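Sat 14:20. Reprocessing the chain from the morning session after the first attempt stalled halfway. Input below, unchanged.
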Amino acid sequence: MYKTASALSVLLVVCGLLAGCWSKHELNELAIVVGLGVDNEEGRYRVTVQIVNPGAVTANEKMIGQAPVVTFESTGATLPEALRRMTVLSPRRLYFSHLRMIVFGEEQARIGLRKPLDFISREPEMRNDFYLVVAKDTTASKVLKTYSAMDPIPANNLYTKLALSDQMWAATGKITLNELIVDITKRGQSAILTGVVIQGMTDGHGSISNTRDISPRSNMVYYGSAVFREDRMIGWIGENETKAVNYVHNSVDKTLGFVECPRGGKVSLNVVRTESRIRVGMSGELPVINVHVRVEQDIAGVECDIDLAQTSSIDQINQEGDRKITGLIESTVRVAQQELGSDIFGFGTYVHRQQPKAWNRIKDWDEVFKKIEVNVNVDTITRRIGTTQQSVSHQTKGSG
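Finished this time. Tokens:
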């Protein structure tokens, strides 16, 4: 009897602990937010949410013709207040666990991201697998109201497009919440966020008819990066400069470029692997940054008369690749030092790790960064020339 009573007591305690459905939410009570836009409007936050319309993205005949997503907007003195005001607009509670994209308007980015990021990082429903971008020459609201041609949910289109271009093109950069917070709070490194623009006609960009044309009238396109000093945006860099930063950051997965042939024409090169190393020396009181980049590439296309069977031809391609990437990084360093005054490469973090005594003497790294010497060394290696050894131009010349 004693054992039976003890077992029942334990069972009752365990059952009490397992009765934990207090926080449950029925699916038909939730508005699933996939995109969040933050703009500034006369000192107040204008917040845009993009919500999935589940019936329109499934095979529901009753919902045919309806928009796959719905956007709501509201304003508030704080970001949480603006979101809470949406209860008068949305019949369901906003649910952020499936958030894919956060878009900051350019004006808000220039004012600062510290306050919005504080709320976003505290919100328990928001996971850390969404990406953050800045709307260039437009507002976050307009970006989230632009329909995408190949995906019924625009936020998903932005997410997958950024992930793909980051992997294959290297002129963009995907960044998550934790990474951004580290970049804007770390001394010795400045954050950059990929920029998104609305390309084409802006009138009618919010109409679902934009998805029914063979050539969409408007499209969301990633271009360049917003540069920050601490949490405030200070300017833009283009796609070539963004590529240079990614080479130094060792974050180029794949990309494609070209070099000029000795007698005219171009050779396209498919970059398949890169590796960068940064070493810090000293010249008097100032650090000296030595950047070493190793690039492995395949020949993707030849539009000139060049004999690829000759080792000297491959050497010429490698040397031209060295020169081009070196020039790209050096010119971007000059832009960062002379025009932006912001260490977008994160050289300060390497000084901190490799020259701690010198780092402790530095009071204002942004000022020191403008004066430091940066040496760039690139080693390009061509691995494969493809299934055809000679270019069509060379074969045509030889047959003539």
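The chain has a mean pLDDT of 89.
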